[in-house]
Structure formats: C-alpha cells, structure tokens
Amino acid sequence: GAVVSQHPSWVICKSGTSVKIECRSLDFQATTMFWYRQFPKQSLMLMATSNEGSKATYEQGVEKDKFLINHASLTLSTLTVTSAHPEDSSFYICSARIRGRSYNEQFFGPGTRLTVL
Amino acid sequence: RKEVEQDPGPFNVPEGATVAFNCTYSNSASQSFFWYRQDCRKEPKLLMSVYSSGNEDGRFTAQLNRASQYISLLIRDSKLSDSATYLCVVRGSTLGRLYFGRGTQLTVWP
Known about the structure:
heterodimer; A: mainly beta; 4-stranded antiparallel beta sheet; globular; B: mainly beta
C-alpha cells in the first residue's frame, strides 16, 4: 500500500520555539494532504486541508498564523507550529489522498508526538 | 453536537468472546463509513469499510443503518491482538473530509 512518512516522530521543545513537521508521500503524488491533531483519549480533529500549490483551508478554531501549512509539492507538506506552548502538546498526524484514487482512500503517516515544556 | 459519537468504553473481554461496538453520526448526507483501528501511540489504520448491505471480513462484521444513522462493528472469537482502540469514521459531503469518533477502547485478556 501507499506509504506516508512523517518527520520527526517525536519532538520535545521549549515554550516559545517553533517546530516544523514534515509529511511526505513516498511512492505516490498526493493531491490533498490533511493535518490532524489528537489529544489523549480524544478523537482525531482535522486542523486543515492542504492542496498542492494553493493555500490551506483551516477548520474553525484553528489559528492559521500559529499553524503554518505549506504544500509546495505533490509529495511534501509541512506543518509549522509557531511559538509553541504547552497546550500545543499533542499527537499530530497527516494523511494523504492519491491523485485519481477514490476519495475514500486516505493514507496516514505514523504521527509526530510534540511535547512543549 | 459531535459529528460522530461513540461509547468510549473501555470494553474488557476474555479471549474468544464476542464484542459489539456502536456509533451514531449526525449528518444524514454523509457519504461513506469506516471502522479504523488505532494502537497506542500509533496512527489509525483502516479496518474495514461499512456498506448498507452489511459486510464481513473474517471475524469482523460491520453494519450500517442509514435511516437511524447508526453503524456497528461486531468482533467474534476475540484475540489478544484485537486489543486496540476502534474508531468510527464517517466521510462527509465535502470531498475527502473525514470525521472521527473518539474511539472505543477494547482490551482482550487471556
């Protein structure tokens, strides 16, 4: 099956720093990438939808200036958490949809666990 | 109201037991329905899609009732390896947009 990688798999940072998370589709072109956040014992919550070459669409309540998303190519999307604070500590997961495939098919990355001290 | 509601459990069952999970969704225009499995600190993985006619994959049976906006998952002959969190997932009318339930935790004990 299609493979999506995320880097880093985990990161610990100090409050106030910025953290960049990369999501790559390894063997396919991802026309759309989705960024989710999951707090402990909670469901995955969609943060934003990113289409290659266009601005990301953010869900209500998600600050676009704090969570910067760049989808510069068909194989790479990045999420930057700017000026991270302890409440941003969470599990961040990306997923990708393949060009020409069913809308039902989304391939998830392994996730990035962010801890802000 | 949340898009997808699930009983969070936990469900603790012995090996060999049959266990059922339920889920309801709020948007009658939802297009597609799935059960995902998520292991601790891992990404969710697709377990099976759910069709109106009901479908089975080995020990797993999924049912969809569109009139009641209700989805179920039945696991027969539970194995230790079935221990995980099971996520009810619905695709909305917006292309590709998935809505996740908070998951039902299952622990199968020997």
